[in-house]
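Weekly modeling sync, notes
Attendees: S.R. (lead), two postdocs, one rotation student

Agenda item 3: backlog of single-chain predictions. S.R. asked that every request posted to the team notebook include the full sequence so nobody has to chase files. The rotation student volunteered to paste the first one in as an example of the format we agreed on. Action items at the bottom.

Example entry:
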Amino acid sequence: MDKETIYYIVTYFSNLMTHDEKSALRHHIYTYKTSTNSQLRKILTDKGWLNTDHKIITLLQNGFDEFERNTAQRILAETPEKVFFNTCPQCNKLARTPYAKQCRYCQYSWHNLMAKFKIDSVFQLTNRSFYLLGEIVEGEIHPGQLMDLTTVGLHKKIKIESIELGNKPNNGKPWNGIGLGTNELTEEDKLYLKQQSSLHPIINIITAQPI
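Predicted structure, as returned to the notebook:
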């Protein structure tokens, strides 16, 4: 794994770090900041900001670069579905952040390749797709585009397999609007989206461009 990917994972998905990894990271930061100030280091140690736990120190024994690499590898191994790699649609290289819309390498911009969709509710059709129901806020939406679920806390881009229009039953009630169907969500993802739908979040719809 290259340094760029390691930095991306540890920086933007630090919420996936374990308690010990977070403690080791804080220890490294405070140790670095007090490297030339022994008095400040003593103060931070007395306050418990510098960790003395052998288990935490051991995580850093081979250097900070090795610690970051091990942390990133563990996160990818244990929770790959929660790490969203924002790659350039043109050159497929990793963007600077999960929210960037312009490539730092080829300078390609995908700001205008998006529509916006407000989620009102969700439902599962028996033996068919899972649907996000709502309305188009901006742009146009077509099958084959990708629903970027980053704004609702799921670091995934999932393909729109189908679009349903008009009246559809939803929990026994008539519904007018648009349903975006997908088959790429886990049961855990579906439950999470059901919980989030009451907040009526707005997601980006991305047009995947051929390289």
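Discussion: group reviewed the output briefly. Residues 3-79 form one domain.
Action items: rotation student to repeat for the remaining queue; S.R. to check formatting next week.
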